[in-house]
């Protein structure tokens, strides 16, 4: 279940085992980010909020930093922010990290960033309209918003125990693509592209994907990818890839992309894990 990561996010900093599911997700998102950077000549980027429902916090834009993009990120938890800064320092990557308790004010000049980005994080924003107004003001070329696929089977399973009383900091209504498109249009930004993303051959469920594939395919059929076959015992993490110690990591993850590449949207509507919306300023 995704919701408990609100209280157990710390574990990924001591044990960076994200598993096959989050590892695949990161490579797919990296590929989308690379296209945005190339298409819009992105030199710097702001990720806010940076905390979403995925393994290690604060590393969504490491792939862009390795390509020379200057990264700024914001988080509302000081302890987590310090851990993020420490991890980037361990990887010898430059990062500007700032604390933002509510995301209602982004303390930057107008058009300070080429790209604004967040992943599965908008439900931590207290006032979505105000936040998007600030994000549009601070960004000049593109804004990429990724939200959980609310039609997806996995999302419905993961959010089934949600209540406002139990999770007072969480606002699932902020994940609605129609609302996001309306509010961004009001700010003078147009929708450039949208689609389902992160659509692997496993459902978005709490079970580890290694165990799921083992049950469905049988252990013998997983032996073609030794790292995944033993992932239930060993750490599966993208961090060695970012340290140039595991150059085949992306290729291994892309072996699972056949559903992503060929499935029609009416299938992805219920199977894909996320949905992205890319906006650019009107008149650009």
Describe the structure concisely:
The protein is α/β, with parallel strands linked by helices and 284 residues long.
The pLDDT mean sits at 90
Residue share in helix:
25-40%
Spatial separation of the terminal alpha carbons: 40 Å
Instruction: State the CATH topology.
Output: Rossmann fold
**What's the total helix number?**
14
Order of helices and strands: HHHEHEHEEHEHHEHHHHHHE
According to CATH, the homologous superfamily is Vaccinia Virus protein VP39
* Lateral arrangement of strands in the main beta sheet: 3-2-1-4-5-7-6
Largest sheet: 7 strands, mixed
DSSP E strands, number? 7
Structural class of the secondary structure composition? alpha/beta
CA radius of gyration: 18 Å
What shape does the CA trace take? globular
Uncertain segments are 219-233
Keywords for this entry:
14 helices; 284 residues; globular; alpha/beta; single chain; 7-stranded mixed β-sheet; Rossmann fold
What does this 3D model show about the protein?
It is a single chain. With 284 residues, the chain is an alpha/beta fold. The protein has a single domain, classed as Rossmann fold (3-Layer(aba) Sandwich), CATH 3.40.50. Helices cover 38% and strands 17% of the residues. The protein is built from 14 helices and 7 strands. It has a 7-stranded mixed sheet, with helices on both faces. About 5% of the residues have low confidence.
